[in-house]
Amino acid sequence: MFGDYSIGDLGSIFVMQGFAGLILFSVYVLMALGLAIIFGQMGVINMAHGEFMILGAYVTWMTSSLFQSYLPSLFSGYFFLAMILAFIASGALGMLVEWGLIRHLYKRPLDTLLATWGLSLILQQTYRSVFGAREVGVELPQWMLGSLKVTDSIEVPINGVFVMGLTVLITIVVSYVLYKSRWGRQVRAVVQNRIMAGAVGINTEKVDRYTFGLGCGIAGVAGSAFTMIGSTGPTSGQLYIVDTFLVVVFGGAASLLGTIASAFSISQTQSTLEFFTSGSMAKVLTLLAVVGILMLRPQGLFALKVRK
Amino acid sequence: MSDEPNRGLQSPLRRKLLMGAAALPLVSILPRPSFGAGPATATVNTTGLAVTDTEVTVGILHSATGTMAISETGSIQAEKLAIEQINAAGGVLGRKIKFIQEDGASDWPTFAEKAKKLLVNDKVAAIMGCWTSASRKAVLPVMEQYNGMLYYPTFYEGLEQSKNVIYTGQEATQQILAGLNWIAKEKGAKSFFFIGSDYIWPRTSNKIARKHVENVLKGKVVGEEYYALGSTQFNSVINKIKLTKPDVIFTDVVGGSNVAFYKQLKAAGVDLSKQALLTISVTEDEIDGIGGENIAGAYACMKYFQSLDNANNKTFVPAFKKLWGEKTVIGDVTQAAYLGPWLWKLTVEKAGSFDIDKIAAASAGVEFKDAPEGYVRIHENHHLWSKTRVGRAKLDGQFELIFETADLIEPDPFPKGYQ
């Protein structure tokens, strides 16, 4: 395969391929973080995760259209505002859903699967009725397009670097919130023992609502960021849901570190295999590896040690 | 359709209905074509189809919900426009076309079920419908068993021919070969990189393209890659493209993947004004989602572009926009869907009958001179003779016509030497 190419060519391709793997890693982490909180911390199987992401994408699209019409001079910076709005919109919808639907189902985790799946269908059809069945094109500011030329033959996509930066930032914020802040301690307390947490004066209902909202809000930010690399349509959320669950389950449901480790191993395996075999074969081999490992380690890569 | 006799309208609804009825005489003053002047129903409908002296019913069967709604919405719009125009022009054999719309919901068994419902319960005289090959394959046995007539709009992989289907889109050789010939001649292209979504249409199309590149153009295929439907990550394959430096990237990626592919190609610094890219799966509809700035410069090879400069198209595009909004765009399949009702009308009038067998027999040779793409004619194999065109994508999401074949290309669903 490599006989015909010079050493220099191969070197730069391997560097770019390394970046491709890292970008895939950031994309996986970003889409899985929200679910890791909701599924990992709360045990809610949220099948509508993709639709919360797409809400963020639609918010981004609306923001970009508004800026184009009313504030064209500030267009280059609209994306940051769009991400914040996406977080607020998805988070608010998440809290509403938690209040109206999820809180009645905490004792029946498997029913959340059906309920949120129904919710995802409802949301898809709502998007279709409101925004139309066709995909919308989100226009990006000029500086986000194109690539950085590192050397003559090595080019790194700017949007990839942006997603990487965003992922690092959000991961840091989330781990700080969950593991260092007072509120995070309350979340973990409720997860470990709801009754005791209530007994020591934690408002468990409120904690649940904000946790779910946070997870959905992060999904919204992810959706907003993915307008740079993917499509925005009523059913685009479905494109992400399988990979998202794969990453979270493989990592071990209750562990943030596990999610990151699993995103890293899956993305690196996949992008390496994609390069040496082909797209669909890489997917098959990756899934086979994940299934194999989960058979040996059903709890996932990292699992909290709990007393049974 | 209720079988119950009218019970005298004793509901509060009655007043509203009466008020509505008062407005009826006003409506009937408006000039409208009169229906019912055609030949007697008993002579034009011997098999019990839904044909009365004044009306004939057809079915529209597309996905209005689910993942394929993105693509099929345009087809539904085009078919409704065609039916409206035919009715305004006096209908078919003096009968007004009424349509029953069913939703295939992007689910292939649902398509088959709804097709059966349309044929068995509604007795429709024809069905305009299906989009993906999978939905057509699901519907085909139903059409053949209950002897219906399907007008299928999408460009597809070929290898099929049925008495009960008229294929108004192009089959693969019709669409691909002329485009490959053009790019080989124009750009001196020798090496090709194929990338497609992983299902029957891209795989069959690429098989045909590979044979043509290797045997006819004496070129080389330096890579052939498939990604699962819905994939959103293409950085690895883009690196492979950069490594192999093909003269032409030949793509048939579909759906949401399309958007991801072109955005990432642009982000990876592949400049489509320098790197030739020929796609057979991106129409104006898809560019709406991809964004003109991400695909400007790419070549697309199909039979229709919204920007075509001919008299038919100049009346078709404004009529479409008037009905469906200024912002709608019209892609290749939308235009092909528009042909369906018209070809059916012309065939019925040629046969002088709504009977399926007579329509199937009369189809070959039916010409439609007002087609937005220009002139089309139905071949004996129930596909259309049509021209193939190459367009270059512009920033505004439209295509600029670069090349069109001089003659109509013969449809060849079972191409020898390409299987």
List keywords for this structure.
heterodimer, A: mainly alpha, two-stranded antiparallel sheet, 11 helices, 2 strands, B: 419 residues, alpha/beta, Rossmann fold, 2 domains, 5-stranded parallel sheet, 15 strands, disordered N terminus
Strand content of chain A: under 5%
| Rg calc of chain A | 20 Å
**Portion in strands of chain B:** 15-25%
Spans of at least 5 consecutive residues with low confidence of chain B: 1-10, 20-30
- From the alpha carbons, calculate the radius of gyration of chain B and give it in angstroms: 23 Å
Write down the overall geometry of chain A: globular
> How many distinct domains of chain B?
2
> For this structure, what is the CATH homologous superfamily of the largest domain in chain B?
Response regulator
CATH domain topology of the largest domain in chain B: Rossmann fold
CATH class of the largest domain in chain B: Alpha Beta
Task: List the strand order in the largest sheet of chain B.
Answer: 7-6-8-9-10-14-15
- Give the H and E element order of chain B: HHEHEHEHEEHEHEHEHEHHEHHHEEEEE
Describe this structure as you would to a colleague:
The complex is a heterodimer of chains A (308) and B (419). By secondary structure, chain A is mostly helical. Chain A has a domain at 29-143 and 154-234. Chain A contains 11 helices and 2 strands; from the N terminus they run H-H-H-H-E-E-H-H-H-H-H-H-H. Chain A has a two-stranded antiparallel sheet. The longest helix of chain A is centred in the first third of the chain and has 36 residues, at 7-42. Chain A is globular and about 70 Å long. By secondary structure, chain B is of the alpha/beta class. Chain B has 2 domains: 43-170 and 310-385, Rossmann fold (3-Layer(aba) Sandwich), CATH 3.40.50.2300; 173-302 and 389-404, Response regulator (Rossmann fold), CATH 3.40.50.2300. Chain B contains 14 helices and 15 strands. Chain B has helices at residues 13-29, 41-44, 69-88, 108-121, 133-145, 172-187, 200-216, 235-244, 256-267, 284-290, 292-295, 311-324, 332-351, 356-362, and strands at residues 55-62, 96-103, 127-129, 150-152, 165-167, 191-197, 220-227, 248-252, 276-279, 299-302, 367-368, 376-378, 384-385, 389-393, 399-404. Chain B has a 7-stranded mixed β-sheet with strand order 7-6-8-9-10-14-15, with helices on both faces. In chain B, helix 5 (133-145) links the parallel strand 3 and strand 4 (150-152). Chain B is elongated and about 70 Å long. The termini of chain B are far apart. Residues 1-10 and 20-30 of chain B have low confidence and may be disordered.
